[in-house]
Specification:
- It is a single chain.
- Strand 4, helix 3 and strand 5 form a beta-alpha-beta unit.
- The protein has 17 helices and five strands.
- The two termini are 24 Å apart.
- It folds into two domains: 4-115, Rossmann fold, CATH 3.40.50; 122-342, Hypothetical protein af1432.
- The protein is an alpha/beta fold.
- Helix 12 (244-252) runs antiparallel to helix 13 (259-267).
- It has helices spanning 11-19, 54-67, 82-90, 103-115, 122-138, 147-164, 166-173, 179-197, 202-214, 224-227, 235-241, 244-252, 259-267, 288-303, 314-323, 330-335, 337-342; strands at residues 4-8, 27-31, 44-48, 73-77, 95-98.
- It has a five-stranded parallel β-sheet with strand order 2-1-3-4-5, sandwiched between helices.
Length: 351
């Protein structure tokens, strides 16, 4: 077994716990309150945090976002409550173990977590890299973006998702460091899978995947410092970010794209209740194609990996979609459930 990193709000308590596991176990204890991040990578991360107040949960979330990078995570539940389990789920737990902690179960949990490390099949990695190379070469400031070129990229995404499945596609794409590449390829893959789940024909599948691939093209004009900022945007940065739908529409307007695709690029942040942007559209003014891409866009943003947050667990992300049914199309949210289920990691919860 590789080295285990134990993140805790009480180093003495946690050191006593893991010290009884195995004399040969390589582990380090990291105080959650330390300003510096752990210096070395670990094979398994374990959290042992008794105080689940808002400050500790936020500190833990940010630390995992900076250090995890696909490493399996075991969450020790000193309080076996629904809130604690939901928090473990939101943190992306690979496995949970509830108190009282039996040494045998802890050993098995650590071993199982390391065995279940997020490995991505070589074919999924290869296909994702090919699409990323396409995206990085085509969607550049000042470069022409034409329907024929985007059709080629759409076919690459559709074939990759069909051959590898949405689960491996997401796992492969989430390893990309560039936030825009990761997000757009996640959303395009989700759209391709959603189209297949809805039973759409080849032309309609292509249409939806193409719309999703194009939806954030306007972010080419957003400064990289804002796109890749390791934290939440301030008011001025949000104002700049909110320009990307109109900028994307203007970028594609004279390139031969059909109006429905321009509509997706401009309106994918619109909400049924009029609370979206840039135009505050309401219900019937928002086309069906836009509504579908918006569901995929929001879900993709929730499950993606960013420098300031770990990927949200699929169940928690879908629960947020359900809570937005007044703003999102309820029928589409319900229909999206099989896609969220397909990506639901199955990890055993110790009882």
């Amino acid at each position: 077994m590789g080295q285990t990193l134990l993140i805790t709000d009480d180093p003495g308590r946690s050191a006593d716990l893991v010290g009884g596991l195995d004399p040969g176990l390589a582990y380090r204890v990291h105080d959650l309150r330390d300003e510096a991040d752990p210096a070395e990578a670990a094979a398994v991360l374990v959290t042992d945090v008794a105080d689940l107040g808002a400050a500790n949960v936020e500190r833990l979330r940010q630390l995992l976002a900076r250090t995890r990078r696909g490493t399996p995570l075991v969450v020790l539940l000193r309080q076996d409550t629904p809130q604690a389990r939901l928090q473990a789920l939101a943190l992306g737990a690979s496995r949970t173990v509830r108190a009282p902690f039996d040494l045998g179960r802890l050993r098995r949990a650590l071993g199982a977590a390391e065995d279940r490390a997020e490995t991505v099949p070589a074919e999924a990695r290869r296909r994702a890299e090919a699409v990323r190379a396409f995206y990085g070469s085509v969607f550049v400031a000042g470069g022409p973006v034409t329907p024929v070129v985007v059709d080629n990229g759409t076919d690459l995404v559709a074939r990759a998702v069909q051959e590898t499945g949405i689960r491996d596609w997401i796992r492969a794409v989430r390893r990309f460091d560039d936030a825009t590449h990761q997000h757009c390829l996640l959303v395009a893959g989700l759209a391709a899978a959603f189209a297949a789940s809805l039973g759409l024909g080849p032309c309609e599948r292509h249409r939806l995947t193409k719309a999703a691939l194009l939806h954030d093209v306007g972010k080419i004009h957003v400064p990289a410092a804002i796109l890749n900022k390791p934290g939440k945007l301030d008011a001025a940065e949000k104002a700049v970010m909110r320009l990307h739908p109109a900028q994307g529409e203007a970028m594609l307007a004279n390139q031969g794209f059909e109006p429905e695709f321009l509509g997706v690029v401009r309106s994918h942040h619109e909400m049924l209740d009029g609370s979206g942007y840039p135009d505050g559209l309401v219900r019937r003014a928002i086309p069906d194609l836009v509504r579908v891409v918006t569901v995929c866009d929001i879900y993709g943003a929730l499950i993606e990996r960013r420098s300031y947050k770990p990927p949200m667990a699929s169940e928690a992300a879908y629960a947020i979609l359900q809570g937005m049914m007044g703003r999102l199309d309820p029928a589409l949210v319900k229909a999206f459930h099989p896609i969220a289920t397909a990506f639901t990691p199955s990890f055993p919860l110790d009882t």
